[in-house]
């Protein structure tokens, strides 16, 4: 019955849109889920069986299933198959009908688009509560609010009408200079202040890159496992997301990956999110030459480079780039506070004019008095002091977490091991492939702690298990108090 | 030679992507322009000749040309044909090659995508300087900065850590309540505070609607002539823009328009931008029933409803909506100041959860202390006072402009006439169809004044000529001083 529905949907789609077969099957499967013909939690037939039932090649079926998995409609469970994700909402069939596609007017109000449904139900950042160990969250309680308020006051007093208007020059000039000076010295980025575009943060930086450098349907390589926010930005801008596995040296494209040539390559080379892998120097050169061969742009997200605790300092990938194909981005949300909504994007010189124009027209940037306050905050050394204090405080938390986890580590290659603790505000506790890390994270959540299963960040791969553990949010006392709870939960694994 | 190039491009496109013919021709023509095979300013053969040369139906050719005109690649000049827009940049052929589409790696760095090129070169808001009479700009020099600074200070002092974080509830609750109260009373919008989503302004509101309610390639009806910012938001979100003519009673879809059923309908009913037409009540009911028949959503942009000078007060289209298909949006940039980057979107109840979730994940909203200051600014009546003062001041400017234009008005249906002066910060001086309004605007610009030719806002239609004249930006003395210069320039038309 399901295959009949799929075949008739594919037939309908094929007759009107001339979509490739795997895309027709993707649409038909998605429709089956939204209409409730494939219910939440239901098991999908194997790709082999589906291919036979539908008279399609197995490659076609696998391609459709992979895309649905990447977008979160389907989930794979090791050894038991592929299932419809529990959070795929069922849509009222009457309202889900998209009459306009067929030109047949109807009275039923339509609802979310397919894109809208994916954007509002998959890779959502709010699925878990913020508690001790939630990754990706900094502790902004130490931010010098009084000083910040004084600076803002000063710049509001100095404000002239232009500062209240939109800004079309890529941001407040002294702020762009301050960012350029910082990046040149601390991140070995090669740049003039003119190449800096002040954005509202990494989401806006990513969308600007995706829109200006790629067309709808173009392929973007995304690290697997990946940062959800980036996946979402690429979904929103209509790119085809091709996951490329990450190993201990960073992104590692195979010949099969190279057969899906990218228009964009998104990487977090100095501290891969979430595994924490640092991209090795040979791998960096290799990536740049792969990008060159494909004529692709590289998007370097240096989201937490401010916090490095051990190992040699790592300079940016951009600093190695000899032919201007790396776009570098960072944010102030981790050193100042998230709600400030200020980040930056560094673009190669030939792109500057187009990026500034489109940024102005699409985003109408503003908040100039706040940009002025931030420029002075950096110039007067307050940013460096805040960073120094934060680095010290996070360093202590990190140390406490490492101490707490020591008893669970096993020296073998199979046992629990830590990766990515050299930098940033989280580390990754790798677990044996047989462990159900999602269930473990849930047991830990029952004790009032939030860690994220590494498998939740995986797009296509099934081999990674672990816990992504943040030490940025909770104060040292909480880490010391809760660390043993965490490690006891992990130790309990061995007994079961 | 051109037709050979077009045919070979179409052949290539047809073989790989299964695009419809008019889309293949669209792509081939665009490529010809970017590669310089069709130079800037060059005249295109007539659609009849092109159809014959390429062996295509004339409808196919017309569809491709219309799309390129809407996107700004082509411009039509009355009586002389269709030309390549002067600002279409030529792209280095080597770098424009998109090797990844064909899977053939190359060393040439790629450049902007087709989407990026369109977004950074068409409908750009910065093409003209801001001077007296520039439309779309308010005078924020009168904004009570000291009071605003005091309120911000107060809320920064009261700030608790959550206020520094991102916000996932659609905005600061007291601000959402204040907006809801204002809209209920002054705009007859039917809503609870829960339906209000605080955005960074109309661009973000439009993109959120386009992404959540429409899929790539879906049709959006846009008023012709149109607000550039909306066109850009829809281009950026991959919608097919279908222009629908506006008459004195607002948007006026024909049977031909209904044959292009929309997923979204974007309107500015209380003061059409830029003609200033007020949508009549029968037309409002008609539009809602058309939307119902197509299962479409209506996006109501009420961008300057705060300033109404004459005629009966007009309530929102949303207020007439009985089945929850209108999304209503407004902005604080015209009453406070543009750089504040705060606006609002009111969504029907069934959409609230999905919109808030996606808004959080895609945009990571922040700036809570500023939202708190704004909430108090409204609650304490400062917003109303600022509005009252501004209304008085703009009213005087409007009066001075109307006085200055009086001598050029002709009583006949063909002579210069004013439309849209009842509301907002601009009016439209309609001119006979034979006038070259772009040339007139350029002559006026040489005298240090900026007005925009009405034809520049037209998407597909060729019958509108006029000047869009703003009275929001320049002080009364400037309007009085420059008004006669403006009217002299218009009067000089009759002599030539």
Name the CATH class of the largest domain in chain A.
Alpha Beta
- Oligomeric state of this protein: homodimer
| Helical content of chain A (DSSP H or I, runs of 4+) | 40-55%
Largest interface: A-B, 98 and 98 residues
Which ranges of chain A are low-confidence, i.e. pLDDT below 50, for 5 or more consecutive residues? 90-110
Number of domains of chain A: 3
Task: Give the CATH superfamily of the largest domain in chain A.
Answer: Type I PLP-dependent aspartate aminotransferase-like (Major domain)
Counted by DSSP, the helix tally of chain A is: 18
Query: What structural class do you assign from the helix and strand content of chain A?
Result: alpha/beta
Instruction: Give the overall silhouette of chain A.
Output: globular
CATH topology title of the largest domain in chain A = Aspartate Aminotransferase, domain 2
Q: What distance lies between the first and last C-alpha atoms of chain A, to the nearest angstrom?
A: 41 Å
CATH architectural category of the largest domain in chain A: 3-Layer(aba) Sandwich
Q: How can the largest sheet of chain A be summarized? A: 8 strands, mixed
Tell me the total number of β-strands of chain A: 14
Report the mean per-residue pLDDT of chain A as an integer. Answer: 87
Radius of gyration of chain A: 24 Å
Strand arrangement, largest sheet of chain A?
3-10-9-8-7-4-5-6
Portion of residues in beta strands of chain A equals 5-15%
């Amino acid at each position: 019955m399901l295959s009949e529905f799929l075949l008739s949907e594919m037939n309908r789609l094929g007759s009107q849109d001339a979509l490739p077969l795997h895309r027709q099957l993707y649409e038909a499967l998605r429709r089956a889920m939204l209409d409730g013909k494939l219910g939440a939690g239901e098991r999908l037939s194997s790709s082999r069986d589906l291919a036979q039932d539908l008279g399609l090649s197995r490659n076609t079926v696998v391609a459709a299933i992979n895309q649905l998995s990447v977008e979160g409609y389907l989930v794979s469970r090791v050894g038991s198959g592929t299932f419809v994700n529990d959070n795929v909402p069922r849509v009222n069939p009457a309202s889900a009908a998209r009459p306009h596609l067929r030109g047949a007017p109807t009275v039923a109000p339509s609802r979310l688009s397919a894109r809208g449904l994916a954007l509002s139900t998959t890779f959502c950042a709010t699925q878990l509560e913020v508690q001790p160990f939630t990754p990706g969250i900094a502790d902004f309680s130490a931010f010098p609010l009084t000083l910040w308020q004084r600076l803002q006051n000063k710049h509001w007093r100095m404000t002239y009408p232009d500062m209240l208007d939109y800004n079309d020059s890529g941001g407040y000039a002294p702020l762009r200079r301050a960012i350029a000076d910082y990046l040149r010295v601390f991140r070995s980025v090669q740049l003039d202040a003119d190449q800096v575009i002040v954005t509202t943060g990494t989401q806006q930086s990513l969308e600007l890159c995706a829109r200006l450098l790629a067309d709808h349907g173009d392929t973007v390589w995304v690290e697997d496992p990946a940062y959800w926010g980036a996946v979402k930005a690429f979904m929103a801008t209509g790119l085809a997301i091709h996951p490329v596995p990450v190993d201990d040296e960073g992104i590692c494209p195979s010949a099969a990956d190279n057969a899906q040539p990218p228009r964009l390559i998104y990487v977090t080379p100095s501290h891969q999110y979430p595994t924490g892998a640092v991209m090795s120097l040979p791998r960096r050169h290799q990536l740049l030459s792969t990008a060159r061969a494909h004529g692709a742009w590289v998007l370097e997200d240096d989201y937490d480079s401010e916090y490095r605790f051990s190992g040699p300092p790592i300079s940016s990938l951009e600093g190695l780039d000899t032919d201007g194909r790396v776009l570098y981005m960072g944010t102030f949300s981790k050193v100042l506070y998230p709600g400030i909504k200020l980040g930056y994007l560094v673009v190669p010189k030939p792109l500057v004019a187009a990026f500034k124009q489109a940024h102005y027209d699409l985003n109408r940037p503003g908040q100039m008095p706040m940009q002025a306050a931030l420029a002075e905050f950096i110039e007067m050394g307050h940013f460096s002091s805040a960073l120094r204090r934060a680095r010290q405080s996070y360093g202590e938390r990190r140390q406490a977490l490492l101490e707490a986890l020591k008893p669970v580590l096993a020296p073998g290659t199979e046992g629990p091991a830590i990766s990515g603790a050299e930098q940033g505000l989280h580390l990754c506790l790798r677990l044996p492939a047989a462990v159900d890390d999602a269930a473990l994270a849930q047991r830990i959540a029952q004790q009032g702690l939030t860690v994220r299963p590494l498998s939740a960040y995986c797009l296509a791969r099934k081999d990674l298990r672990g816990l992504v553990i943040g030490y940025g949010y909770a104060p040292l006392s909480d880490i010391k108090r809760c660390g043993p709870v965490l490690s006891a939960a992990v130790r309990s694994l061995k007994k079961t």
